[in-house]
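Data availability (excerpt). The following record was deposited with the supplementary files.
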Amino acid sequence: MKKTLLSALVAGLFALPAMAFEPFVVKDIRVEGIQRTEAGTVFSYLPLKVGDTLDNDKAAQAIKALFATGFFRDVRIEVDKDVMVVVVQERPAISSLNFVGMKEFEKDAIIKALKEVGIATGRIFDRSLLDKAEQELKRQYLSRGKYSAQVTTTVTPLERNRVGINFNIVEGDAAKIRQINIVGAKAFQEKELLSLFELTTPGFLTWYTKNDQYSRQKLSADLEKLKSFYLDRGYLEFNVDSTQVSISPDKQDVFITLNVSEGERYRVASVKLAGELTLSEAELRQLVQVRPGDVFSREKLNESTKAISTRLGTEGYAFANVNAAPELNREKRLVDFTIFVDPGKRVYVRRVNVTGNTRTRDEVVRREIRQMESGWYDAAKVQASKERVDRLGFFSDVAVETPPVAGTSDQLDVNVNVTEKPTGNLMLGVGTSSTDKLILSGSIAQNNFLGSGNNVSIQVNSSKSNRTYAFSYTNPYFTPDGVSQGFDIYHRTTDTSSTDIAYYKSKSSGAGVRWGFPIDEHQSLSFGVAVDNTSIEVFDESPNYYKTYVQKFGKSNLSLPLTFGWAYDNRNSFFFPTSGSLIRASLEVAIPGGDLKYWRYGLQHQKYFPLNKSLTLMLGADIGAAKGLSGQELPFFKNYYAGGVSSVRGFKASTLGTAGTIEAGDRVGGNRKLVGNAELLWSLPGFEKSARIGLFFDAGQVYAAGDKLDFGELRYSAGLTASWISPVGPLKFSLGAPLNKKDQDESETFQFQLGTTF
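Predicted structure:
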């Protein structure tokens, strides 16, 4: 009733201003009714001041201006002699926002979203904005599949003209997809088509993926997958005619029905190239994957046009436009394609800009860039630059953009934006591993020392079986053309009494210098020379094999090992690659001049195959062989071992070997090693750069000197694996089980490794 009367009064004031008062000169202005608003704020919005003549029109303008601020819900102008009195009634301010029953969303995120629509503590309360906020919150619950969610708001008046707003929420259960039907599919079974979809009915992992909850965005993506599936198999006229999404009366079940038209299956009759063929037609045709007589495939056609665009990009045609136009023969179910090539202008790079590197020096990034400024644009070099910067391991994300330069048609910039991550580690603490049990360790390591790209590390590791004190330094660009140099100083002690390796103790001290020489973008050679002094101590319970060696060569030996290496690395990421290969070959030779003479050869190969956006198949091999030189035996402490989290999982570390058990189960390793790994890796959504899990299958064995390389002696295991770049260091663990365990083998189901690069 009051609102109706107020509206009538205001309307009367605007409509019949002549009935209000006679014009007069304002000698003073007084504001009444304000509690939080400053009087100066009111004066600033008034369209008149002291000395002006107030009449009915100006009074109406003043009321409109103050209403327009949104601060007041009632405004009146009264006259007290020659004083203009502005009487206002302020809108209440929002004092607090409370949410009761909200579990699906984070409170801070909702408060931030409400602030963007005008609902926030300290702001003026507006009922219309609150209604919009309530509807938006309901819509958000609908997007999460909670169709029965109820949102009600309560506004509680408080002292000093304030209000508290309570959102009372009954979330209810999320509706689940109970059935997805595809009507009109004849060429393929419905089960096969539904396997393409991200949306699915409730299953084993849907509690985590939420893929059993309807999402318009996910359905659109699934429809595109379905269309691509048909187009890649020749159904050029495939179409999704309609989609129906219905919900049960209790709002708990969702049913999706798709009506499709498959059309006829087409084969390719001919493929022509037209337009401005900057390169020879023969070269471009080699890039076309679609062949006459083949069943039409949109994927192959897209790859063909993309390959031509990329090839033109390597010649400087950054804005090449390549399109394929089909011509259908419906009677014969054939399609002719004409690929039109428009290379555009050849462009060159004006500048290479590096941003986001607050600690890392520009030169550290720029020396990895293969696209030169003022040179012709080369798409392959730009991609190689991105991969090389990413492989530094200094950045959590590397993005490269090539925007055209405004006002030109033949220039562009290459913008490299990096997101830095911590590259140093200062750690003092206690750790554990499944092999060494208790580890007391401390280390200072900086992979990007002072932003220079150099690696400096001081390591102290004290476990029951291994103690290490080491200092290392590496300069990856000792020379401007990429020759690296580094050196190492170390002291290590080994006590195998707590392991499954035969009992002995050793102390090794040494130092070495090493160099690396790049061959091309992905290959490098390395060379190193070192001096090492190793002292061996054996005991009554040590194997006779060890005792005989010490008697023959003494307790202390000096060696001068030379190391040679070759590496090939074209992986697309340093920590969690999804494509590419890593190959390392190494040779260590103890040269004359030292007491020990031997050689050790190793070969490691890892190959990554991307299966889709989330799944990657990794195949790996680790081969090693060693032998004494000049009639000497191979030092037993240079033997190979297998088993453990970094080898054949499911078997205890260092327990495999064809030598079997020697003197009460002691393990002595062997001079040859053969290990193979296969892993099906899954990147966790939202954690692609920090964690992933997978299934593994391992095979391996260590062979003693004189034993035949018998593949029948290989041990096999399978299980689950997970890797995580945790705040305290890289973590790797596995749950594995041997598949062909023998009596002398020792198994270990759970194995993990913390703080070791893998």
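Summary of structural features: The two ends are 76 Å apart (CA to CA).
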